[in-house]
Specification:
Mean pLDDT: 96
Structural class: alpha+beta
Strand order of the largest sheet: 1-2-3-5-4
Distance between the termini: 57 Å
Low-confidence stretches: none
CATH class: Alpha Beta
Shape: globular
Order of helices and strands: EEEEHEHEEHEEEH
Bound molecules: adenosine-5'-diphosphate
Number of domains: 1
Length: 241
């Protein structure tokens, strides 16, 4: 499909000056909320997200309890003021879908069997959105879970690759998402490369899919290093006090 705007300049750079395999700038801050067990503020390009973890605590209502393990309730919400045209507040189909896939991804990584009948609530608030918010939200949630001291197999991390003007690129920006051909967000456990979440918008050939998956994996590992650095920064500072 031919996009209606040009997404590469004559030097092969993208609209925001990035190379095809370059991520947007990412900043991660750990432990920003005092009432949460664990929290994280994350900026990823123009996205701004907060993740806050509460629990494990007794799951209410009681009929939602699982006698064998904790349930993970991730709730993704985009603030009304997070996009250019104000978004209607409250849950919608899209936010329910994203909450579900993030809950399922996190449930694969948390040692839920240690907390029967409990719920672990992960609130993800998107304050500003510029494409890639499910990856930003899940990545922030991974850090917040670690900050909460909840036993996890690994710190989950997410990143997307996609296709614009017939080229596979890393981490689509807003115009690329709007005018591009495909978007492939994934979340992984970086220690084992197990895939925790995979979704796809648009069309890719099998070869393009393989290239995009490999690129998204590489992106995940770069973001994973940033997560670990941010966590170390918080806890090393505390030790120094
Ligand atoms: P993701 O944010 O994970 O890429 P989508 O592909 O569904 O998820 O959305 C892409 C982008 O489109 C969002 O990051 C946001 O900038 C914008 N967007 C999504 N929903 C709305 C909405 N209801 N109103 C305005 N913009 C939206």
């Amino acid at each position: 499909m031919k996009p209606d705007i040009k997404l590469f300049d004559s030097d092969g750079k993208r609209l925001d000056g990035r190379k095809p395999d370059e991520l947007r700038e990412i900043k991660i801050e750990v432990g920003v909320l005092h009432r949460a067990e664990g929290s994280c503020y994350l900026e990823w390009g123009g996205n701004k997200a907060i993740a806050a973890v509460y629990g494990p605590r007794e799951a209410i209502p009681r009929h939602t309890q699982n006698p064998l393990r904790a349930i993970i309730n991730a709730r993704y919400n985009m603030a009304a003021f997070s996009v250019e045209d104000r978004k209607r507040p409250g849950p919608d189909r899209r936010s329910r879908e994203i909450s579900k896939v993030i809950s399922e991804a996190l449930a694969k990584i948390v040692l839920t069997e240690r907390f029967p009948r409990a719920s672990i609530d992960v609130n993800i608030e998107i304050l500003e959105a510029e494409a890639g918010t499910r990856c930003a939200g899940l990545t922030a949630a991974g850090v917040a879970l670690a900050d909460a001291g909840i036993p996890i197999r690994d710190i989950p991390v997410a990143c997307a690759a996609g296709k614009i003007e017939n080229q596979v690129v890393l981490d689509l920006g807003k115009d690329e998402d709007n005018h591009g051909d495909a978007d492939l967000p994934i979340a992984i456990s970086p220690r084992t490369n197990e895939i925790l979440l995979m979704q796809m918008d648009g069309h890719l050939t099998l070869d393009e899919f393989d290239t995009a998956l490999e690129l998204a994996m590489k992106g995940c590992h770069i973001v994973s290093d940033l997560q670990k650095k941010a966590i170390l920064k918080k806890y090393q500072n505390i030790e120094e006090v």
